Amino acid sequence: MRRVVSLYLPTWPTDRIRRKFGEPPRDKPLVTVSTVGSRRIIASACLAAQKLCIIEGMPVAQAQALIPDLHVIDADPEGDEASLREFARWAIRYSPVVAPDPPDGVWIDIAGVEHLFGGEEALLKKILERVQNNGVNIRAAIADVPGAAWATARYGKGGIIPPGRAVDAVSPLPVQALRLSRETITTMHRLGVERVGQLAAMPRAPMVRRFGRDAALRLDQAFGHAFEPISPIIPDEAVISSCAFAEPIGRAEDLKGVVRRLSEELCQELTKRGEGVRRLDLIFRRVDQKGASLRVGTAKATRDHVHLARLFDEKIETVDPGFGIEEIVLVANRTEPLVEQQTIVHGIEAEEEAVNLSRLVDRITARVGEGRVYRIAPVASLLPERMAKKIPALAPPSGSSWPEALPRPTRLLDPPEPIISTALLPDHPPVFFIWRRIRHKVVKADGPERITSEWWLGDQPKTIRDYYRLETDKGARFWIFRDAPMTEGGRWWIHGFFA
């Protein structure tokens, strides 16, 4: 099923200027201006300027009369569009099907790749946070069709439109959400048509006579009744292998055979460049102009074409060929230098050859997603929940390790869960505790082990915990703590279990 993200960058020209020059500060009003005839008018305004009632199309003289210290810079539409294309190239990290949507947007078709980022919600959150952290205002929406995502991102609340609900999401929006000309919108308003739902309720023939065929097309595209293609951009430096067919194909076995051949051709080109693949995209173009894409990554740079083709085997079964696929494109959009190494000499073999787990990691990652394949590395911290972190499965050793005799449980609860307990004396362990409505009698205990906050980090809240290792009359062993001395009213928590 097709799922499209529409990214809306409402203040892209001014955000680009701030990122390029580092000034003025974000709380200072900034506008770009263009010349129309003999007049200089506002082309775009930052959020700070918009809050002071500076809008697009306002004469510069009027704006400066309202705000004497207004920062004014000449508009550069060509530079804005070129930067938007670079932004779209950056977004290829999230999907192989990405295209700029001038003057202030980007399309991303995430069908087939959203699981690599933990689902649509996690992917959208990741994109928004990344862009906002770089000083760019952004809104976004996901829908089955580009038109619905575009309309919701700009004139709705954004977010995720469930599959099949494009009509419900777009109907309440103003007719400006249909990407029509200003003249057409003015005509609609003059006739009392304010909402998309009102336009959709009109008979088709009178609507076309009054507003033109473009209005009917945009309405169908927003509702998903007419297909709207997205032409992906492909980086110039990317290694590409493609195959077009005289007759469309659709059988999974045929597709796999083509992918194997394309992978071999692509790896031959990579050999000439001395590079290996780290991220590989497979793009299918159907005869009905609809498409699909698949993405795989590798833990280490590789030119093994058989291994790369196998990473797509299971995913190809999920591709809907429709009425047939007329072209397949294989793109290596992320590569790294890879130098051939001699591993075996005639008559001499390595005594202790390192086990290469990269192929296994790649196969598991292709099946379950990149974020679910990792290993645990030690972290120098006193707090138990901070003593480990996730790192890539094949990341080099960090050189750090946990203390050998550290009494820690085999399983931690995240977060710790509160329990009801009572100790007879301030530093004594509890004689019983109640957890999840079950009473546990303590027969053996060891502690306390006091753990305090990492004061050298400066910004950490003050923490004092007294940990105890307990054994109950049923033989279960728990790790509990009190978050403050008993004289200060500390509460009890269970943090883990021992094997």
Structure explained in plain terms:
- This protein is an alpha+beta fold and 499 residues long.
- The protein has helices at residues 12-21, 47-51, 60-66, 77-90, 120-133, 146-155, 166-170, 182-190, 196-201, 204-211, 213-223, 252-273, 305-310, 313-316, 358-368; strands at residues 4-8, 30-36, 39-45, 71-74, 97-101, 105-109, 139-143, 159-160, 239-249, 275-286, 291-302, 325-337, 374-378, 388-392, 411-418, 420-423, 430-435, 438-452, 464-472, 477-482, 492-497.
- The strands form five sheets. The chain has a seven-stranded antiparallel β-sheet, with no helix packed on it. A five-stranded mixed β-sheet has the order 5-6-1-7-8. A four-stranded antiparallel β-sheet has the order 9-12-10-11.
- Helix 6 (146-155) links the parallel strand 7 and strand 8.
- The chain is globular.
- The two termini are 45 Å apart.
- Residues 350-354 have low confidence and may be disordered.
